[in-house]
Amino acid sequence: MNKVLSKMFEFLKIILFILATMAILFGILSTYSRLEKSLLDAISVFIPFILLLVIYIVNLIRRDSKINDNLLLNFVSCIVFAAIIVFGVRAKLDTNMVLYHKYGINYNPSFFSDNLTFVVSMLYCLIVSNFFLIVASVLGKEKKKNKYQIYDMKNSLPEEIFDEKEVVKQNLELSKEETEEEL
Predict the structure, then answer these.
(1) Residues 128, 130, 131, 132: is their CA dihedral positive or negative?
(2) Where are the alpha helices (DSSP H) in the chain?
(3) Is the pTM of this model over 0.85?
(4) Domain boundaries, given as residue ranges, for the chain
């Protein structure tokens, strides 16, 4: 069940990432054109999107199950991207909101620029969490290599030091642990 949910959220994460990027791009283009500002000022907003895209591409190339099948990361990523999409849609449709027309509530024309910092901070949190998972995955693979080196050293020593049955048992246990970790 976890794998199915994880794959579903992983697919949804990619779609929501694209939609969130488009919502922020559209918001920046409309805001900066209205204020007649240069788009070069908005590069700092797109740096986390670019970094996150690079990390997602690295994860897709590496096909590491610890990162791609992480249900919590995929779920939180979907929530963050959905929040960014809602934020972008609200910034665009703020004057057309029902409360604005029904009750005459004033709207904030700088809503987009006021809340853009929260979007960038959420994206940086996703970048840091992905980075930590990549580092943990790489370190975990190095530990497996060290286990094999220890058992290879035992196999290379003379037979009188180790009992042959003991070495076979240890190798079987290691292979069982490896198959359990892969599942």
Answers:
(1) positive
(2) 2-35, 43-62, 65-68, 71-92, 98-103, 111-156, 164-182
(3) no
(4) 2-138
